[in-house]
Design goal:
It comes from Podilymbus podiceps (Pied-billed grebe). With 213 residues, the chain is of the alpha/beta class. The chain is built from 7 helices and 11 strands.
Length: 213
């Protein structure tokens, strides 16, 4: 079904109205566009999914379903594409939204954390120090978790300021981590093993996403 839907969408103009009759979990993943610009880019462009109103709604519903009933205080999104899903999730949950930025953009007091992103580049991210108080329960949202370096840096920033990301070791303390895909990399497995996670890829499709197919 996903392959058939992908074939329908391989046109220069996207149909923003079409929704497949059988809406299996993750049907909207076929809306994502493959990389046509070479190896220095990510292998998929999820932003095409965000253009489809029903696709975006169903993606958010799947991401937030594991956290239904959890006492979330704030949603934090990671620069830059995590801002889209994070802000949308915050609006659905009626919570505030905190932007975790690449370093050098905030004009207030910040805490910084170096990290290595999925491409192997060394970077630094930062967060304002006045938004997270001890015990604040935060749902961390990013578009994609490939190597896990970016998300681990965001977790470190939140925890250094006293915020809580749901650890799986007792006692469980909501909220957690959400992304469209959490790849089966060493870093992705570490995050799954230590934190409550939500993602949108059905188990039967996970190997294809791990192989970037």
């Amino acid at each position: 079904l996903l392959a058939q839907y992908s074939q329908r969408l391989r046109s220069s103009r996207m149909d923003l109205c079409h929704v497949p009759a059988a809406q299996e979990k993750g049907w909207y993943l076929a809306l994502m566009a493959p990389n046509v610009n070479g190896p220095t880019y990510a292998w998929l462009d999820p932003s095409r999914l965000y253009c489809h109103p029903q696709g975006l709604q169903d993606c958010l519903a799947d991401l937030l379903q594991p956290f239904q009933g959890d006492p979330i205080d704030m949603v934090a999104g990671i620069d830059a594409m995590g801002f889209i899903l994070g802000a949308a999730a915050a609006a659905v949950l009626q919570k505030g939204f905190l932007a975790i930025r690449k370093a050098g953009h905030l004009c207030v007091q910040t805490r910084t954390q170096p990290y290595t992103d999925y491409s192997g580049r060394e970077k630094v991210m930062e967060v304002r120090t006045d938004a997270i108080s001890p015990g604040l329960r935060i749902l961390l949202v990013d578009q994609w978790i490939e190597t896990g370096g970016t998300m681990r840096a965001a977790i470190q920033l939140v925890e250094q300021l006293g915020g809580v990301v749901a650890a799986l070791s007792p006692p469980p303390c909501p909220a957690g981590v959400a992304a469209i895909c959490i790849e089966d990399s060493e870093g992705g497995r570490w995050i799954r093993e230590h934190y409550k996670c939500a993602h949108c890829v059905p188990p039967r499709l996970q190997p294809r996403f791990d192989r970037h197919q």
